[in-house]
């Protein structure tokens, strides 16, 4: 048996190399490249650098140059670095080519073959917008086809985060198990619902799934084997018709786009739900009627709707765990028939509600104003006491009669209220945004309505506010709209 005695003199250089390697890995790409000129040790570390992040910023390129120059310089610098890299020990590869034009995809294939090896943990690939090329005088959309075979050679065992933007992904049954993949993000990626099912079925450790603008997905189905999936975001996949999740432990679901058929398997773990549907109306009504079957234990609910036309129905069903309710109603002008007071259906159905936020954004107020109405004409709804509601915020508060009635109903039936905020502006003021001027869409009509809203607050709301409730009234910025305010006041008088 041979025994090797390591002396202190021998150990010191080893420790020094480890320290230098750690320091070099923590440097930015530009600083690390410069350091290679000063030290042989750094030069050795450079070809084994574990974290490779390539973009205009990290490579110090001129963002104001023409796209042709950007493409030439970015490709040449990345290629020089990659061809001199050993390919050993790469943990992160992040390539941002969004600012480029007409990329030769052979470069990408070469870089990925060098870096995507067993041991890689993060792969982020952001490509340019698809370009049109001509073959045999016929236009063809040129999109990079990500080589799934790279994930079948053992790299799939180590990769934890995969983020693809503007490319094509065609996984097959031979992909193999991506046993370490916890985060999968795809934006503007060409992949069908069946191909995505294949990918998900081989990703048992997945925790977070984000799909944005994936136009080829018509039916999204998530297998029950994804026991660890907690977060699901599906946004603006225009052809999507069905979302069916059987992941039993999903806690957060964000959806944006055209609402079709949604089934979450009655997930009892779902606590946070956000729905943004600007391409169809009546989403608030849909949510009141259907969300209990989708997410019976939801605690935070956000709904954004465009031009809501149908009043929210009064139902006996209850959101027993809902604590935060945010409703955003966006449109040029809502239907005069829409009744803000019908939102009481949501508030009254939530006995544990603590925070209610209503955001109204409309270019002109289409509802009947309460000004001129005798106070005894305000409608009353059978009382439903709220013992946990502490904060109510209404932005874009206007003089619509039904909105004033909603505000008064909450004040009269909430014993736990601490704070009521009524914001008469539709857009943040300069005091909030830190800009020199308030939002330009705060035009003359908006200012006139803001003055009416302030008058409605003084006349109908102020007297109903209990002494223990803090009332915050936000009005247009006096510095930016001093002249306009005088004009508005003149019109009101």
TrEMBL record:
Protein name: At1g61320/AtMIF1 LRR domain-containing protein
All residue ranges annotated as the At1g61320/AtMIF1 LRR domain in the record: 81-478
Lineage: Eukaryota, Viridiplantae, Streptophyta, Embryophyta, Tracheophyta
